[in-house]
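Sharing in case it's useful to others searching the archive later.

Someone asked me privately for the predicted structure of Two-component system response regulator YesN, so I'm posting the question and my answer publicly. Question first, with the sequence:
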Amino acid sequence: MIKLLIVDDEQVERQGMQAILERSFPHLRIQQAKNGKMAIELATEFTPDLILMDIKMPGMTGLEAVEKISSDFPAIKFIMVTAYDTFQYMKAAIKLGVKDYILKPSKASEIVSTIGKVIEQIITERDHYRKSQLQQEVWEKAQVLVETDVVTQFLFDHVHEVHVDMLINMLEIPSSDELFVMVLHLPEGAEVYYSLIKEKVRQKKSGWVGALYGRQLPIIVFRQYEFSYRSQASAWARDFLSLPATTESTDWFIGIGGVYKSLDDIRTSYQEALMTTIDMNARKDYHFYEDISFQPDRLEENIANHKELVDNIRLGKWDRVYTQVMNQLTYFEKGRTAIVHAQQRILELLWIASRMMSESGIETVTPLYMVQPLDYRQLRGETDQLIQKMKQSYEQHITLLESDTFHKLKQYIIDHSQEDISLDTLAQKVQLSPIYISKMFKEKQGVNYIEFLTECRMEKAKSLLADAEKSIKEITFEVGYHDPNYFSKVFKKVTYISPKEYRKTMLGQQV
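And my answer, the predicted structure tokens:
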């Protein structure tokens, strides 16, 4: 509903104007003011969209009232109503942004026509504002998904049809060339905390939040140079720990990785942040990776060992996992490393392996030593048992899943190849992690899921090209692409000939 205010010192004029408007614009909500001062008061209380303002009034002129109201409410539109058709008045009114004017006396049709044009403008502006607000909301939601996807690709090696560089262009990147990762170990019911944390990071405008994996939430933080790295990270950690929902829980822990100068190196900071959470006795606290003593290995060797371990587990090569862990134990023993430090380092490796399995949808208990080993012989025995339990969980999971999961995934892609299918979409269909699905395709099909999806689309395109009535553009959309040029490029890459050449060959064979 549009609200209109009639301002005139003559009651007869006000009543006559309102009668004309109510007949022609029954949707209007109308109020009246008998002078400029009252008009200013009603502008605040009534908040009209349009004001019909008489110029000559006792006390305060209409132009003075327009100037005052416009300064406080710039969105309000004005039409001057006057018996003085002079250039001086019109020039002053135009300067104040008045939309039009009505001369006294005027025909009812002229009044309706003039006011109708301004009302249409108001309605158009409202529609435009609603659309832009909706577009803004859609864009903000899209940015949230893009942000999560970017973090996931950087930290978890996800495969995606849209390259991470393209996604980053959709995000606001803070002006910083240094960054680090924080991993929040959340309490049970972690979903309750996710939105609170997301909003907190959004307010800071210098971080990206990843996907929630179980109770682990990774955050990429961009350095703010007005603070030191430790003071910035500590402030962030304290902010998270002081969120309203966190005060009732004691099961919080935050690991903070080191600072790196490139997004390409951010996975190292992520691994460091994960390692700090190995201290199971820490509660509602935060630790820096640099504060943890890792002897005797250097950081680079430590990270490389973890990556090799994770890769072996992903490939199901448990003999290599066993050899790597036991070789590490032998190295500690020969170096006369204290048994307690050796146990801590081995537990790191097993914990990283356990986390990787959990992220891949494999249920396994967090590895813990039930006793404090007295010597390396006992430590080897305890370690062997923990590895065997993890291996057993892995093999049971594979046995249950691989019988028909892969067939279901392939069939779904074949049936829906024309749609935009992401790893997350496939993951939801079979209740597995995107990481595990990507691994399954590479191992069982020899290609990643995008390559298989492309093959399906090309097979469908070949079939459609047999129909001479269908244009290349139509076929492009039917097989799931949006750009005929891109479709032709992909088709030629797969078949070594263009769609047009393929069609000519097919039609020639039919003849």
